[in-house]
Specification:
Radius of gyration: 15 Å
Structural class: alpha/beta
Strand content: 15-25%
Order of helices and strands: HHEHHEEHEEHE
Largest sheet: 4 strands, parallel
């Protein structure tokens, strides 16, 4: 995961995701989301890295499910990275960071949404992002991560 996330090994990342979907894709199919979306990076961080690893994961899942990918979540604050922060610091760091594009909110109402994040540590990021999806009217929300990290 580290090579995929920080070292530009997007091909390796796609291979990992495809292999995961071969083995465990049935779990995602059973949820049957209407929309797949992902945790966005701040535009500066994405520009610097050259890609968003969560988008790549979401893109592969979207292809697998033959469903739409929603790109309407924006990261409106450039926060420090969560790495090295404890649970309380992570929640504070990520508070109020996400927003939805105004014109895209309508397509979320009454939908089952699969939210994709690359790594789950405390859940602060996915919870913050999930809250704005629920406020926009999402009927049901599930989280997909490729990796679990413990503090």
């Amino acid at each position: 995961m580290h090579q995929f996330k920080y070292k530009g090994k997007t091909g390796l990342g796609r291979e990992i995701i495809r292999e995961y979907l071969k083995r465990y894709g049935k779990n995602i199919e059973d949820f049957s989301p209407d929309i797949v979306t992902f945790i966005p990076l701040h535009p500066y961080r994405e520009w610097k890295r050259g890609y968003n690893q969560s988008y790549i994961i979401a893109e592969e899942i979207s292809k697998f499910l033959k469903t739409k990918i929603y790109t309407g979540i924006r990261r409106i604050k450039n926060t420090k990275q969560q790495v090295g922060l404890n649970k309380k610091e992570r929640r504070k760091n990520i508070k109020g960071v996400f927003a939805l594009r105004k014109k895209s909110k309508e397509c979320l109402k009454y939908k089952k949404i699969l939210l994709v994040d690359d790594v789950f540590t405390t859940g602060a990021t996915s919870e913050e992002c999930g809250n704005i999806l629920k406020k926009a009217g999402a009927r049901e929300l599930a989280l997909f991560t490729i990796s679990r990290r413990h503090l």
